[in-house]
Each structure stands twice: as C-alpha cells, then as structure tokens.
Amino acid sequence: MRVPLSWLGEYVDLPEDVSLEHVHAALVSVGFEEEDVHVGDVTGPLVVGQVLELQPEPQKNGKTINWCQVAVGPTAVDPSVETHPDDVRGIVCGAHNFVVGDKVVVSLPGAVLPGPFPIAARKTYGHVSDGMIASTRELGLGDEHDGILLLSSLGLDPEVGTDAIALLGLDDAAVEINVTPDRGYAFSLRGVAREYSHATGAAFRDPALSTTPGVGSGFDVAIDDLAPIRGRRAVTTFVTRVVRGIDATRPTPPWLASRLRLAGVRSISLPVDITNYVMFELGQPIHGYDLGAVSGGLTVRRAAAGERLTTLDGQTRDLDLEDLVIADESGAIGLAGVMGGATTEMGDATTDVLIEAATFDPVSVARTARRHKVPSEASKRFERGVDPRVSAVAAQRVVDLLVELAGGVVDELGSVYDVSEPAATLFLPDGRAASLMGVDYTDDEVVEALLAIGADVTVADGGWSVVPPSWRSDLVDTAGLVEEIARITGYDRIPSVLPVAPPGRGLSREQQLRRQVSASLAAAGLDEVFAYPFVSAAQNVAFGSVGGAAAPAVRLANPLDSASPELRRSVLPGLLDVARRNLARGLVDLAVYETGTVFLPEAGATYGTATVPVGASRPDDELLASLQASLPAQPRHLGVVTTGSVVDRQPGQSAVAASLADALDAVRVAAHAVAADVTFRQTTHPSLHPGRTAEIVVAGEVVGVAGELLPSLAAELDLPRVVAVAELDLDRLMQLARVEPEPSPISSYPAATQDVSLVVGVDVPAGEVLSVVREGVGSLLENVRLVDDYRGDGLPDDSKSLTFALRFRATDRTLTQVEATEAKQGSVRLAAERFGAALRD
C-alpha cells in the first residue's frame, strides 16, 4: 500500500517537518513492514507561463509548428518594470490547442520530467527552443496527450512564474508498506491514518464520519444469494446511487491525479478517477456504470451455464457456475468484486452514472479472481475483508465528488440492501493478555488499547466483553485481541525469553534414515540441490515411463510456466536442468543429488475432486480423509547425477572421468546408510545407454534404476557425452532396510585371502555370479569383491573370466590355507552347477 503524505495528513496530524523515514518508523512500530519510498518524478524549474506571442510556421514535412514567446517570470507581464531577459523564453511547440494569453506549464532547461526526460535548450526547426510547454501526459498526471495542459481547464489562474510543481501537487511523496492478509483495513488512507495515530498519539479524523450518507430509492436490485457450496452470504451490503448530467470529459484535478499516481494508479478519466480515489480513501471498492447502458435493474447472482462476459480489459471470459456476477436484463455485466464489464463502461459520452458500493464474500471474490487470472485493486480489498458499514458513506462520497468536480446533479434513484450483522462478542478473561505476552498489563492499558482500535468494551464477570469494530473482520478470538493489546502498547515491552522445547519422541525412523542418507551422500562428496517439481510432458515421458510406456501425470490447472505444466514422475529432469545450468556457468565437474517427492497418479483415476472447504472454516476428519484420497501417491525419491571428472588431473595422476560406476557407488552409499543390501542387474531404459543400465534391487525387489544417458539425449540437453544418473524410491528402500542392523563382531584372528577366477558365458551377469560365490563359500567368508573381468586371448569368444578376491576369517581360530581353499572350492562347485562355470587355468 502506497501512502501519499499530503493525503495522510488530511486524516491525522503530521509534524511540520515530517519525513518519509518518520512515517515508516511509526508504521513499523505497529506491525507493518517497510517496503519502499516514492517521490515525485518531476524535478527542477517547472513554472507557470503565459503565451505572449504565437507564430505558426509550416514545415517541409507537412507539419506546422508554433514559435512562441512565453512569459515565465513576473517582470514579463508587469508593464511598470523593465522585463528581465530570462523572464521571456522562445519555445517551439507542436500543439495547437492554445492561443495568446493562455497560461500553461513550462519546463525550463534543467527540469526532469517522468521518464526520465531531461529538458535542455536545443535547436529545432530553425530556432533554439529554451524549454518546453508540457502536456498532462508529460507531467505524469494522466494519459491525455491531445495538446498541452491549459491551467484554465483546471479552474486555475495563478501568477506567472509560480512554482508549478507545488501548484499541481507534484512535490508530494509516499511511503509504501506491506499489508498482511489479516489487515485489509490498511489498504486505505483511513486505515493507515488510524494506525499512525496508534503509533504516535496524533489526532485521528475518520473520513467516514465527515460524510453523511444519503439514501436513494426506486432502483430495482435483486440479490439471488444462493450459495449452497459455501453456506455463506454472497452479498451483505449493496448500495446504489445515481448522478445525472456529469461532464465526463472534464480533466481530473492535478491534486487528485497526483495522489492517485503516487498511490500506484494511473489517471484514466474523471469519473473513474473519483471511484478509485474513494476506494483508496475509505477502502471500499466502488464501481460506476454508464446508466444509459444498463438494461433495467441489477441482479446479483451466480453465473449461468455457458454464460460469457467481456470485461473492462477487453477479454471475453467463459464464466464458471461459481462466479458471482452483476447482471441486468441483458445478462452478466460484471464480475462481482473483481472487474466490471465492457458494455456498461463509463466513457466520454457518459452523462448519467450508476454508483455501486457493495460488500462481497471474500472467498467468492478470491476464487473468481484466481480462476480468471484478473487480480485487481478491488479484489485485493474484498479478499481481505471490507468494512460493511462504510458502503453507504463511500457511495455518498463518490456522489459528492461527481457533483463538485464533474458538474453532476444528484438523483433520488437508488437502493440500499444491508443484511450485515455486528461482529460476534468476544470474552477476554482478566489476566489473559499478561499470561500470553509475558507482560504485566494493567486493566486500564487493556481497555485503552481495545478502545483505540475501535472496539466496544464492557466490563464482564472475570474480564471484558469485546465487540470488534466492523472493519476488523480478522478479530475472531481472544488471541487476536491479545495481539492487538501487545501491538498498541508496544512490541518492545514483550520480554525475550527462549521457550522450553516440549518433551517428545524426537525424529521418526523415516526422518532419521532420510537424514542419514543425505548426510552420507554429502560426506561422499556429492552436493545436495533442490529442483522445481514442474516438468514438461516430454520430460515425464522420458524419465517417468513405466515399462517403456508413457504413464499418466498430474497436470496443473494454473502452471507457473506453460512449458512445464506437469508434476514430475521422476526427480531426474530437475537434476539434469541443474547440471545444464551449472555447465553453462563453467562448472563442469558435477556430482549432485536430490531427495524429493514425485507424483504418481494411477491410470484412469481422477484427482482433486474433493470439495475444497471454505477458507474460514476448519475441515472435519471425514473431509480431510476425502481430500487425502483425492491426491495421487507421492513417494520420496533419491536422484543422483554425475558428470565431468571425479578425480582431477594433477601431477602423476590423469583425470578420472565420471561413469556409471560412480552412480552405482552413490546408490551403495545410500543403501549402506539405511542398512540395506543392494545389488544390481542389467536392464534397459528408454533414456539410458543400452548395456550401461542397471536396475537397483533390494531384498529381491526393484526399487530404482541407474545408468548413463543416451549420448543423443545428452547432446539434445546440451550435456557432456557421458552423464551417469541413478534414481531410486527412497521410501521403499527404507521400508526394505533392516529395522535393527546386526553388528558384525571384530575378530582378533588374522584373515586368509585367496582369489578365484571363473569362466562363464558373456551373457551371465557378474552380480549373479558374485552372489553365487558368496553363497557357496559359506560362513567363513568375510568379504568378496569382483576385481577383474577379462575377455580376449585364451578364452572362447562367447566367454569371459571373472576374478573375485575372497577374504576369510574365523572368530575363534586362525584359519589354515586348507580351510580357505576348501571354502573357495565350494563356490566353484556351486557356480559350475548354476552357470556351468569352470575354474580358469
């Protein structure tokens, strides 16, 4: 919310030397966040001038310019004194909407207009133009650019040489604060002024009390308040008024246009500017209709099936059955609380205006604005709650300004619908504020703080009965009242005390194991990253397929990026994007991992069908179960990507390139961290290199896949030729892990080592042979490793030799070589039985 200081000063007393820093500090002390400051975009010499001479000069390009002599100082128009040379300037002007004698705004050399657009004396069209006669747009006061700004059109007749910056309100400044969702009343000068008063004690003048609302009658308004989905009133107040005979072409006064500009809204036209001005002033959104374009009366209802509406931004929208609309006899003419319709828009030809000030259901407005992607200043206020008691006042304020500034006449036609109810009475027990805040508040402090925010307070047995003010819809419980007491009396009084952690059972087993996996991978030299869960359909097909076939994916109704509209079925696309981004920045040696959820809907299932609860109500257990059932499975996966070098080139050491072995090692590290036994089997994957792809197996169940990207896919993704990846279902891995790992006793006896080389067919997986060797050796085996895979001379073409290093150890004796050899022979016999293996000579 931007707060112009001159506007703020109308409702609260500001110091004479007030600064932006002072106002920011005051508002921060009552709970607002400081955002920014905004000062006028016009600097330098900007003065009132009067045209003394005007000479039209046709040009060769067909354009006619005016060579003007303009008085910019008092001596130029005072015949009793000699004219100072600098008080008359020669200026070239291309506009033709002025004559000799008109008073205008002159930007002298050294001035800077919005843009920024610096002004300097320059030669043009055969003359030296010593300044510029400014238009409304060039001054930042509006979009009008049909000619220069004539001060007489604003009802102004200042002295020549007067400072035009002050005259037009261009010297104002504004502070910007962040308004939290629970404090919608602060989206108005009325609300901010009240908060400044709380912070400083300055006298507050409520603008809602300075206007006496009138009442119109005879205009038909029907409230079709049928909202069974919500169980809440769609409309609580709806006030209409009529003003006839306005001149919509009149210029917006500079002070009003300047304030709107500082508040962040551009000047559009006088009637629209007035409605925006009142919205910022009182926090009540106002909509104005061209009464001549309205057919019959108004009806507030839900949209009909197939109904469409062209809104003020020119977009034709297909309406939803849940959209609340304003309609006349022709159909919908506006999205209630969000945006008006184009058919009843106020324009230059508008003479009769229908004013609407209403209070709509915040949930309904919020959902409509998000559904149609049309956030507006009005919806921003309705979503956070609008004071229902200010609707009639705001309508009257617009009526008064249309009469004063647009020359309109008040009509008795109008209507009033008001079913708003006072806020529920809250009970604040004596001592509750002190117990929650840790501050010894006196009874007087409690009462004064609640009265200051506008609440009605009466003494009750054991405490106070408190009725929150109509503009504080966020105050619904005792805790909210205590927060207000703490805020008004000062946050600095709250002591800094560290809370004592409540006793509990600590982390769950799954949480502990996830942390162990992450810590182990980081200790092994991998870097943890987090990628967005949003991917393209092609990425889901490439990495989230099942059995090589495309699998269903969750598609977002409102994606942040249209190129990534689906939720990921795999964590690998995000990791590969991370790798590509790092490679583009010169970081070529990468080993990264991520643990995150994936989204695995079932084919044919429909998700997100549960009725979403009303924002202000708490869902019951049955509804929560329904919502949970409407979500797809979301297991947590672990993904790993390595590329570049795992060992850098250095003296005496060649670089070692990353490969599939490094991805498999990362999987072993993760499995070891949760005490799971992992093995690998050769497999295929549509996006991985054939022959260099393995499925990850734990307890006989496939839990993931590892491999190297297809070189063609790596090139398509702008990645190196060799990129090793792995992905596994971390949740399933933890379920299959041993709950209580069995520690192996450390023997004090020496080990016996032997090697065995087995000749098997080239199609026999080495991992299966290793498992058979481990099984055949028996209980004396302490460790077995594959140390060589030989194919070549001395072996048949369809065979390979696998060499395993065996380490034996007993817990109660020193093993002999005979015992070790007998154990090794057991593995040879079993391998011969299973695979036809032969001992290599």
Provide an overview of this structure.
The chain is an alpha+beta fold and 841 residues long. The protein folds into six domains: 2-40 and 172-205, Phenylalanyl-tRNA Synthetase, Chain B, domain 1, CATH 3.30.56.10; 46-167, OB fold (Dihydrolipoamide Acetyltransferase, E2P), CATH 2.40.50; 217-418, Phenylalanyl-tRNA Synthetase, Chain B, domain 3, CATH 3.50.40.10; 426-493, Phenylalanyl-tRNA Synthetase, Chain B, domain 1, CATH 3.30.56; 509-600 and 635-736, Bira Bifunctional Protein, Domain 2 (BirA Bifunctional Protein, domain 2, 2-Layer Sandwich); 752-839, Ferrodoxin-fold anticodon-binding domain (Alpha-Beta Plaits, 2-Layer Sandwich). The chain has 21 helices and 42 strands. The strands form twelve sheets. It has a seven-stranded mixed sheet with strand order 28-31-32-38-37-36-35, with helices on both faces. Strands 5-4-3-6-11 form a five-stranded antiparallel sheet, with no helix packed on it. A five-stranded mixed sheet has the order 13-24-15-23-16. A hairpin with a 3-residue loop joins strand 21 and strand 22. Helix 5 (254-263) crosses helix 6. The longest helix has 19 residues, at 817-835.
